[in-house]
């Protein structure tokens, strides 16, 4: 830390600062750039090499860096506030400097790893309060110890990078996370994180051994020095309320060298309704080695009975930790309604299963493992998403009404996914991690609408779908997945005390009874609410003020 420098070096520092500042950011003398004092502080706290990773809006690369990890084009060119400054640290000490200097200069912080936040909160703000974007893209090293079955990953690593380096170390080790290669491992773990291995090995957050963070004071903490309550909060409670994650140590799990996969599609005319009804209860009770989900979308078909030729297509997608013959027997016995043929199933290596599941629009193509490292390999889709959890099967009438809703939009404009739980997920207490919805859940519902054409209409439509589902999904409170965050559930005030009633509304939707425990952790580690955004966890004292 350089905070105790002698006055002579201060003078030296100012000269260095001025020269690098003018090289990097050519502001006219009259122009006041509010990020200036912040950048000056960074150089003071760190050293002048930090200027190589600081971008002001006047810097030619600012926009490129900003947009590179802006993964939902719905939130590009919006009315949101963009960062005063972007910093892409190359060392942990630079992250510490950013946290300290942002506070000293009354700037808030948004931290971005993969940039897939559903509401763009990791890089933009609905508040009119200047902030620094701390973009972790340069801190993304992954190192795997196959003997110890662990991996240490920098916060900026994507799932694709994590999966790739595990594959390079071993064909039979895996990390139980999600399905889209450019999703950030950090954001995913911070909200819980599920994938094809969830029914056997739990969530990503269940498989975290250690984490390093920078806290509000700029100190580096690990599991031991932060205490178990903060370690708990970071595994599902949304890290951005508590600090900046630097790296994770992960537990790896065993998978067979060869696994079985299939993806078959059925339309309404092919009796899809008679398949989804049993699917709701059967899929969660299959052996834990089976992941069987269903994706639903509106499409055009020449077998449609409607004048507009529209129908709903259901794609049953499966990964099985075992051979194709076994998977065939399991599905044929338990869910004969879907009419699976043995020839629909392929035996593939684990890495192929990851690529085909992970790149899911490319199921029939042939990506290479190296494509997992390419952050531009998958096209970014503009969408608005929501989620629900189902504990009682939806009736036939309810399902038919759902089809009518889906048929209101154009082909390809919506996707719904039912992701069954069960397996080991029934064995977790609600309080095991902040994500509460495991024991007894039949399946999670993910719904999205493409943000194209008349977007006002699209927003109205997804809200009406959400309204339609109310009688069929979890209640008191109606649950939502924090990683599918949705500002329709409410927002904190920009300034001043948090409205606790509002915060509790979305807080209980995401975390149920774990919300109050998260508030307790927040109160201990960030009582003045520095790490704050539209849906961050409020500290207790401020929560109480506006509650009275
Ligand atoms: C196409 C797609 C597929 C998905 N698939 C799955 C899936 O299979 N399973 C699943 O569980 N989820 C899935 N998700 C949801 C995903 O887990 C969340 O969107 C997640 O937040 C993305 O993490 P990120 O690092 O990419 O996002 P970011 O936008 O970078 O961050 C998300 C949140 O985490 C915070 N954050 C990021 N980095 C840090 C850090 N270093 N320190 C502190 N806070 C930080 C941000 O401030 C923000 O609040 C998917 C999302 C998309 C768009
Ligand atoms: C400047 O800081 C970086 C880390 O932030 C460090 O790697 C580098 O050695 C430092 N340079 C000098 C000259 O101190
Ligand atoms: C800033 O812009 C200049 C050109 O205007 C470029 O050379 C430089 O690499 C950019 N980025 C940083 C971090 O300086
Ligand atoms: C954002 O919008 C700009 C201007 O329309 C466009 O050039 C850019 O490609 C967009 N970027 C992303 C990531 O959507
Ligand atoms: C980065 O990861 C590689 C293996 O993937 C490892 O050999 C190397 O030591 C790591 N570097 C750092 C700085 O951790
Ligand atoms: C990997 O883990 C094993 C077993 O825990 C340990 O003995 C070894 O030193 C580790 N290797 C590295 C490179 O850290
Ligand atoms: C749909 O189910 C009905 C009744 O069970 C059956 O007669 C019909 O053949 C099925 N249609 C298709 C396409 O499988
Ligand atoms: C419907 O389309 C499929 C191919 O998409 C084609 O094989 C089939 O013959 C068509 N059926 C009719 C009735 O046109
Ligand atoms: C529906 O399909 C039929 C036959 O494929 C075609 O003649 C007709 O124009 C289509 N209707 C619409 C509204 O696209
Ligand atoms: C399964 O097939 C459907 C229809 O072809 C496709 O849209 C979907 O992306 C595929 N799913 C996977 C996981 O490949
Ligand atoms: C899961 O729920 C069942 C039924 O309510 C209950 O009997 C069981 O104890 C619960 N398990 C855990 C780990 O909470
Ligand atoms: C878009 O949809 C909204 C709501 O359905 C409607 O009021 C508006 O007129 C539409 N705008 C255009 C340009 O069609």
From TrEMBL:
GO terms for molecular function: FAD binding; oxidoreductase activity. Its cofactor is FAD. It comes from the Eukaryota. Keywords: FAD, Flavoprotein, Glycoprotein, Signal. The keyword Kinase does not apply. SUPFAM superfamilies: FAD-binding/transporter-associated domain-like. Residues 79-255 form the FAD-binding PCMH-type domain. Residues 1-30 form the signal peptide. Belongs to the oxygen-dependent FAD-linked oxidoreductase family. PANTHER family: OS08G0158400 PROTEIN. This is FAD-binding PCMH-type domain-containing protein. It comes from Daucus carota subsp. sativus (Carrot).
